[in-house]
Design a protein that fits this description.
Layout: E1 3-7, E2 15-16, E3 32-38, E4 41-47, H1 48-60, E5 62-65, H2 71-75, E6 86-89, E7 94-97, E8 100-101, H3 103-116, H4 120-130, E9 136-142, E10 146-151, H5 160-169, E11 173-178, E12 181-186, H6 191-202, E13 206-210, H7 217-222, E14 225-228, H8 233-237, E15 244-246, H9 252-267
Parallel strand pairs: 1-5, 1-13, 13-14, 14-15
Antiparallel strand pairs: 2-4, 3-4, 6-7, 7-8, 9-10, 10-12, 11-12
Helix pairs in contact: 1-9
Length: 278
């Protein structure tokens, strides 16, 4: 039976220059591989060791990139290893099969959002009204599913995100602060729901997961085993769960450790495997 490995990308497997956390002496810094170019500039990296491990993982498991990125943002990433058959974009809003959106899945997501939470237009309007142009650099609507702001963190008022989270909670939405981005995402829009569907399609009897942000919590809780790095929203809040290992590594070396843990778990004997938890 196949093993399904669902991993967040940004600040979990791949890292921008600002997120690398190369705190070691220069001579001991790991060799890096660029895996994303945007507007002719290198944007995201992983270590060369992690790249080889990910290639090995793709040969031995069903590897599923699982991201809040839009499809367009995801498709500019060039991960090492065999092209994944499945990918999850827009926090579960789009399930890609061989790079193409599964229309039935997307239609089902839209129906759930219409039934279970406030409309995107209401949330976006509140974001625009509540945010201060002094610290907002960009505002975006992603895939007509959720909204986010790009902000100057040093100018962001300390309690603003908490106040937004309370407002959003009452409308069936969740708020996540990741680096310079503040996401407002409908609660029914989850990575775990899409991973459940891929597990069903593939017949996977073991699901592994990794992520660093609040938007990854449902994914980690749904998997048989999970890992989170020593940085990010979950680490900063002290978030923990019984089947989730909190790694000490931060930055790009955490990404390497996560792929190593995935590969070790895939190669372990099959005893103790179970179905994806509901």
């Amino acid at each position: 039976m196949p093993v399904l490995v669902a991993s967040d990308l940004d600040r979990t497997l791949i890292y921008s220059s600002a997120a690398l956390a190369l705190t070691m002496p220069d001579a001991r810094a790991p060799r890096l591989l660029c895996v994303e170019v945007h507007e002719s500039r290198p944007l995201s990296y992983m270590t060369e060791t992690a790249a080889q491990l990910l290639t090995d993982l793709g040969d031995t498991a069903v590897f599923v990139p699982t991201t809040t990125r839009t499809r367009k943002q995801y498709q500019r990433i060039n991960l090492p290893g065999p092209p994944p058959k499945y990918a999850i974009c827009a926090n579960g809003g789009h399930l890609l099969v061989d790079g193409v959106t599964d229309a039935d899945w997307h239609a089902g997501v839209l129906a759930r959002l219409a039934d279970e939470c406030a409309p995107l237009a209401e949330v976006h309007e509140h974001l625009m009204r509540a945010a201060d142009p002094a610290w907002v650099r960009k505002q975006r609507i992603a895939e007509d599913l959720f909204a986010y702001l790009v902000v100057e963190r040093e100018l962001l008022p300390e309690d603003w995100v908490k106040e937004l989270a309370v407002w959003a909670e009452n409308r069936g939405w969740t708020v996540s602060l990741q680096g310079r981005k503040i996401y407002a995402v409908p609660k029914p829009l989850t990575k775990s729901a899409a991973v459940h569907e891929i597990a069903r399609r593939t017949g996977a009897d073991l699901t592994l997961a990794a992520g660093d942000s609040l938007l990854d919590a449902d994914l980690l809780l749904a998997a048989d085993r999970g890992w989170r790095p020593g940085h990010g929203e979950l680490a900063d809040s002290g978030w923990a769960a019984p089947e989730v290992s909190a790694l000490p590594e931060r930055g790009v070396l955490a990404g390497e450790r996560i792929v190593r843990e995935f590969l070790r778990a895939v190669r372990q004997p099959t005893q103790g495997r179970g179905e994806l938890r509901a």
